[in-house]
Hints:
TIM Barrel, binds succinic acid
Amino acid sequence: MIDPSVTVGSVRLRSAVMTASGTAGYGSEFAPYVDLATIGAVVTKSLAPYDWPGNPAPRLHPVHSGMMNSVGLQGPGVDAWLTRALPGLLDTGADVVCSIWGRSVEDYRRAAEMLSDAPNSVVAVEVNLSCPNLEGRGGIFAHDADLSAEVLAATEACGRPRWAKLSPNTDRIAEVARAVTQAGAEALTLVNTLLGLALDPETLRPTLGNGGGGLSGPAIHPIAVRAVADVRNALPDTPIVGVGGVATTADAIELMAVGASAVQIGTALFADPRVLARVRDGLVTEAARRGLGSVAEFTGLAAL
Ligand code: SIN
């Protein structure tokens, strides 16, 4: 028997496979496609301490090897999510990671405080410091190590492990990673989307309502692998959750081999939500084929 569970810091996950923030609705929509109690966790769309309308449509656009998005962090706010969406998700047996965002340090503090009495099945809080779609309204926090650390320090009141989600749009990712770890992040989620721009070939206007957006999907997978490898090298004791272009078991193993303890799947879910179950099972099958006793043993296996 191969043990499919992994740990991310103090959090034990039933599988190494989670949804990526913002790619699985409120989570319970995925129950017809995968038993949510058998994946690592459902990670929510990032929530502010207030409801937020997001960016003008269109908000998603497929491109070669991936997808562009500029959703603009639309959401009902933490309190509305706790009362209206979370109960249905918990009924599925899922463990949940609640992602939070804000336009100021104070926003993050309030969002974290609102989670202080959340049920224990909210096993961690992912602090999203890296949305690329808020230019002119705060920018990307994760491009500033000091500000990122300030945000992390402000979110302690959530009373559960915090994972800092960082941006690949910087060559300072290891520096930011160190700062947020020292400020209280128990783990790092690497990486969010890459800044991009796509035009309609006929009108030559941006395909997204907000102009540019974030690129995700297979195109960014090697960038995620590099970011995980670099941060693991700089901070070998800090757990990492790898995210970026995971669509197959091999993609997940690649991120784990360079140091991730678990992975998140995002863009691939838009094509087929069953990819969660395929990669969950594929990791077990592949661990057995390689003579490992557990999926967790993939972490750090790379011959770098
Ligand atoms: C968005 O809602 O615009 C994307 C969120 C993110 O990339 O963090």
